[in-house]
Design a protein that fits this description.
This protein has 13 helices and 2 strands. With about 260 residues, it is mainly α. This is ABC transporter permease.
């Protein structure tokens, strides 16, 4: 694991050759290019989409995980299987399925037209919204599973004690359940936020190459532009940014995340 990372860091300080190779000439130019307005905007767009994806998966995933943890045990296996089943299908195939659903001649538009809600097909594909929908769908299980594990571990006696002391259900949830499940929330947010920065194929397919994120930029530098040093510099910058975000998240939590939620 260390060897490719060290190699990427090493070539990030070199320069692109005339024919697309690597010239062993030490330089900081690749890192200076990152702060140009064009690439800086890509970083900001990537962070914003990753943040929105994380927020929506948390908003949708927490109630789902809470209900799964509270239903009778004989039904929990089925509920967990419904979360895991999408992993049995290649994520690329599932993304193509979303493309078919959201196309102008897809199922969603056809249903809306037949119901009389719209008169002409909506342009849903190749937009930021389409990218967000596919991101949330693809990463939803990564949020639910840590949340479910964390919620299931909450001692019911604490909640009963809070109610005996006069707290209603909402207050007991906010003062007992929510703080105790914070490790699962932080773990789920990390597991969603980090992959959402690198899922370049979702942006390529659902965004129609109109949405450029960090993952797409890195892929293009290595495979299209053949500028490996700059692609490596962007990769290093992304890794450093992720480490900072993870560190801040753990710091805000105020304690170590229970590794079992991973």
């Amino acid at each position: 694991m260390a060897v490719p990372i060290v190699y990427i860091i090493f070539i990030s300080f070199l320069q692109r050759g005339v024919n697309g190779g690597i010239d062993v000439v030490f330089s900081f130019d690749n890192y200076r290019r990152i702060f140009s307005p064009l690439y800086f905007k890509i970083f900001l767009d990537s962070i914003s989409i990753a943040f929105i994806t994380t927020l929506f998966t948390l908003i949708l995933g927490y109630p789902f995980a809470y209900l799964v943890a509270k239903i009778p045990k004989r039904f929990r296996v089925l509920a967990i299987m419904l979360i895991i089943i999408p992993f049995w299908t290649n994520s690329l195939i599932r993304t193509y399925a979303w493309m078919i659903l959201m196309s102008t001649e897809g199922l969603i538009n056809n249903v809306l037209i037949k119901m009389g809600l719209i008169t002409e097909p909506l342009k849903m594909l190749y937009t930021y919204g389409a990218v967000l929908v596919a991101m949330i769908y693809a990463l939803f299980p990564f949020m639910v599973l840590p949340l479910y594990t964390s919620i299931e571990k909450v001692n019911k006696g604490y909640i009963d004690a809070a109610k005996d002391l006069g707290a209603n259900s909402i207050k007991a949830f906010l003062t007992v359940t929510l703080p105790l499940t914070m490790p699962g929330i932080v773990a789920g947010c990390i597991l969603v936020f980090i992959p959402s920065l690198g899922l370049f194929y979702i942006c390529d397919l659902m965004g129609g190459s109109k949405v450029m994120l960090i993952g797409n930029l890195i892929k293009n530098q290595f495979l299209v532009s053949r500028d490996w040093p700059f692609g490596a510099a962007v990769s290093v910058a992304m890794m450093v940014g992720i480490l900072i975000i993870v560190g801040v998240g753990i710091k805000l939590l105020g304690k170590k995340i229970d590794l079992e939620v991973f």
